[in-house]
Design goal:
This protein is α/β, with parallel strands linked by helices and 231 residues long. The chain folds into two domains: 128 residues, Rossmann fold, CATH 3.40.50.1000; 86 residues, no CATH class. The protein is 40% helix and 12% strand. The protein has ten helices and seven strands. It has a five-stranded parallel beta sheet, sandwiched between helices. It is elongated.
Length: 231
Amino acid sequence: MTAPPITAVLFDFHQTLVDGGDPCASLDAAWARVGRRGSAEQELGSERYRRMAQEVHHLWDRVREVDPQGQRDLSPELHRAAFDALMERLPEVDANLAQGFYEVMPEMWRPFEDALPTLRELKRRGIRLALVSNVEADIRPVMARWGLLEWFDAVLLSFEVGIVKPQAGIFQLALDRLGVDAGHALMVGDDRFGDPGGAALGVRTLLLPRTEGRSHGLGLVLRMVGPEADS
């Protein structure tokens, strides 16, 4: 028995379609945002500068230690509380600089080089697309800025629908809005805790672990979907 054809793809956002940007550029932007004098590298020294940039870049990797249920993505207040709890573990980053990091974070996101080509090709093949993201604020302006928003038939954000991945409900909402059955859908993400939640409904899942390069291997989605969707 062959698997049913994939006629819809659900995408995660952060670390799936976009990355967090260059760590040092993020530190430079945060430093300037809060009005620190000179350059961050000059004032901190090269070794401390690069260490701090990397520590903040990987800050969210340990978020389950302070927010095991993913409640941070239900409101801006909960998200900021989780961020502050993580920042407390980085004593070199004072509260003022932490504020700068928090403010510039969305500005540093950049689409992977294979994100837009993959979305365009999926739409050419007649595939329905939904974004399913655990996020505390509206990311549509960011998506629009990078030309990502126009390709999606539905956008489901956890803070708007009141459900976070891996709860099956957010995946079911996406399927309902696309008008497809779970067996004809593919979920693409990077988070081994949240993104497989749709599997309970029968949604196939592709996990692409976090990468540092400009391409994220999204061509695998096209290979899984096949050349054309069923009419």
